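User: Quick sanity check before I run a bigger batch. Here is a single chain. Can you write out its predicted 3D structure?
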Amino acid sequence: MLTEEQIQDIFKELSYKTSRSGGKGGQNVNKVESKVEISFDVLNSNVLSEVVKQKILSRPNLTDNSGCIKVISEKHRSQLENKEEARRKLIQVLQLTLRPVKKRRPTKPTKASKRKKEQSKKLHSEKKQNRRKPL
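Assistant: Done. Predicted structure follows.
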């Protein structure tokens, strides 16, 4: 998990790109660049350790070929709100990636579930038996 200090350092390493957002927008739609694209270079980051970098880079479809995570936000009309939204999305993606994987413990079916399964098989079998032509 990332600490608050690491998150603030990550924000310093981000590069921002703005563009005009698509869709409806009225008078400002062709003038205001409210869409924000954040790019975080995982390979060249000074904040993340090598272990964390490898864990992030091992996830398929998370980074592009150059080892950057890109996040886009165009939800809000304001560029500042979209910037905050994109930052929030990036931190959420990183936190989910770095969360430890819970080990699966196999379980055995209960007696009741075995009985229920057996009963449904028996009913199904009887249904099929009743469809046969009598001899």
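The domain at 4-98 is CATH 3.30.160.20 (Double Stranded RNA Binding Domain).

User: Great, the batch can go ahead then.
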